[in-house]
Amino acid sequence: ARRRRDGGVVVIGLGRFGCHLASSLTQLGHEVLAVDRNPDRVQKWSPYLDRVVQADSTEEGTLRQLGLADFGRVVVAIGASVEASVLTVLALAELGGPEIWARATSDQHARILESVGARHVIFPEAETGERVAHLIVSRMLDYI
Ligand code: ATP
């Protein structure tokens, strides 16, 4: 029988956002499988994460071979390339299995991600900007 990894999370794309996400999940005790097509990124993060694989995430067959269907959740952390992010979500949706979280860089990008199968869409830059604004304002109030 195939091993189930319901508590495990796949992180696709080890850019500035994806690498912090993957290392935080690891620190929180979750099994992480990280995927990036760039061999330099794979080499850089291999010592710090359980499993880092070099692969193109837009290829459904590759995702299947990596056993992604057994994981509970997958986060598509690719940001700059809308095409790579959309094709990856599409391949994951066709694969079935993990709940899909995906990073968007615009509202249109978010709508496409939702329409091809993303359950949750995240905007790391917008969310961080908003959070820091609230933090600054809340600390201003401390001094009044
Ligand atoms: P960040 O802001 O998180 O640094 P970014 O938008 O600057 O991200 P991107 O170009 O989105 O950077 O790439 C994030 C990571 O995703 C990179 O390490 C890149 O190699 C990886 N990546 C991009 N396309 C694919 C793909 N098709 N398959 C696997 N990994 C990919």
TrEMBL record:
One of its GO terms (molecular function) is monoatomic cation transmembrane transporter activity. Residues 6-122 form the RCK N-terminal domain. GO terms for biological process: potassium ion transport. It comes from the Bacteria. This is Potassium transporter. The chain holds residues 3 to 146 of 222 of the full protein.
